[in-house]
UniProtKB/TrEMBL annotation:
Broad class of where this protein is predominantly found: membrane
Subunit structure: The complex is composed of two ATP-binding proteins (UgpC), two transmembrane proteins (UgpA and UgpE) and a solute-binding protein (UgpB).
Protein name as annotated: sn-glycerol-3-phosphate transport system permease protein UgpE
ABC transmembrane type-1 domain span: 80-269
Encoding gene per record: ugpE
Function: Part of the ABC transporter complex UgpBAEC involved in sn-glycerol-3-phosphate (G3P) import. Probably responsible for the translocation of the substrate across the membrane.
Pfam families found in the cross-reference section: BPD_transp_1 (PF00528)
Amino acid sequence: MATICNQARPATRRYILAPLTLLVALIFALPVLWMLAGSLRAPNEILSTLSPLGWRALVPSEIRLDAYMNLWHSGFLMAVLNSLIVALGTVAIGLVICALAAFALSAIPFPGQTAIFGIIVLSFMIPFDAVAIPLFRVFRAVDLHNTFLALILPGIGNGLAIFLLRQFFLGIPKQLVEAARIDGASLFKIFWYVYLPLSRPALISAGIILFMFQWQAYLWPLIIISDPSLRVGPVALAQFSNQFDFDLSQLFAGAMVLSVIPALLLLRFQRYFVGSLATSGIK
């Protein structure tokens, strides 16, 4: 009898949690569905469907692709391409810097190691807005404004990515490191042939963090870039509206385009991201 009861409890729990999970997912999906429906409507129909509120707010009576066509002619897709260049460049350079920093903080004992790690942890708790203006003056002084390099450099040393990689590196068995040292491997070879191959989930997670940091950046590209050909997606999206006029369907279409790319990225690498977060707190 006890065995039957124990088997029934997980089944009952599933029947209760499944509808609740579906309900929570639907609540989070409703704004996205409304935005998608709005991007396929005429601008004057978007707000009119909210009163009275009903299912018609999520189902357009007529599908129109005008907003997406206007994105093509407005140069918005070029701004999205610039965002991709900046985000991928940040991931490529940032992973190297963050992985080396995490390796030094986890595998190479040196004086002040704990203090430096504490400073890095505090660094990603400071809002970027607090340092944006002083950083802008530094970049102007060295004539780096209006360049892709100016957009990439602030994101390559991400404190959260270093923290995540360092915690993952601490979980790598020390026996492997000792065996490599006995074989005469240098520190760089230990990093390259021992740590990196075992850290694929953490590297992917750190790459996602670096990518998202740059993909959603707005304030820094706004103040450091004045050349229209170098503007990024969030800045271009904000310029669709002004004090006197805005096209809500075009804003929704642009927001959908900017949302699809990171959503696909997270869906593709979700299991690595969750797995690395779960194992990074072991030690």
